[in-house]
Amino acid sequence: MKDLRRYLVLKYIQYLVLSSSNAISTFLGLLGSLYTLIILQSAKVSSKSTAVLISSLAKADILVAVSVVSEMLVWTFDVKTSSTAFTSALPPNLLTANTHISCLLLSCVAFEAYLITFFPTESRHLRTVKNARLTSRFIWMLVTAECALFQTDDLLKASGTAPTGSPGVLLFYFSSTAAALLRSLSYFLGIILRIVNVYIYYKIFFSMSNR
To answer: Transmembrane region positions (predicted)?
Structure first.
C-alpha cells in the first residue's frame, strides 16, 4: 500500500500540480504505472474499489505509450501520405485523453478517501468494486468520445476547406463548435478539479492531525 500511495502522489504531482507534463514526469509516470500494474496482480493486494480506480489510472498511461510509439513511427518512416493529418493529430489527442482520464480518476480516489475519512459507515454501500468499475468504464467511454470528436475536428481543419454537401457541412460545423466548447469546458473543469482535490486533502489532513 505504501507503493500505491507513492504512485498516487506521483500522479497528483504530474496531473494536478504541474501546469503541463514534461519528459521527466511522463517517463516517471510510465514507469510508475507499469510497476503499479505489476503490484496489483499480487495476491497481497485486496480487490477493493480504490484498487480498481488505481488500476484504471495506471492503464490510462497506455495512451501515452501509444502516442510515443506513433510519433516514433512517423519520424522513422517519414510519413508523407494523405494520412499525415491523422497521424499528426493523434498523439496530442491521446495525451489529452490520458490527462482527462487521469484527472477524473484521481478525483474519484480523492472523493473516496473523503468518504472513508468522514463517512466510513454511511458510504460503505457506495464504495464497492462494482461501482468503481462502472465509474471507470463511464470515464473511459466519456473521454474516448471526446478524443474521437477532437480527432474528427482536427482532420476536418487539416483538409483546409469545408465540405460542400449538406451532411458534410453539418458535421464540419458541429464538430468544430463541439470541440471548441469541450476544450473550454475541460480547461475550467481542470481548474475546478484542482481546487476540489486540494480542499479534500486539506480537510483529510487536518482531520487526521486532530485525531
So the answer is: 12-40, 52-77, 97-119, 171-202
Q: What residues have CB less than 8 Å from 65, skipping those under 6 apart?
A: 30
Q: What is the C-alpha to C-alpha distance for residues 197 and 189, in angstroms, rounded to an integer?
A: 12
Q: Tell me how far apart the alpha carbons of residues 48 and 127 are, in angstroms, rounded to a whole number.
A: 8
- Which top CATH class is 1-209? mainly alpha
pTM reported for the whole predicted model: 0.88
Residues making up the chain, counted from first to last: 211
Domain ranges of the chain: 1-209
pLDDT in tens, 144-198: 999 999 988 888 777 665 555 556 566 667 778 888 898 889 889 989 999 999 9
Choose among 89, 120, 103: nearest CA to 53: 103
Residue 20, pLDDT > 80, answer no
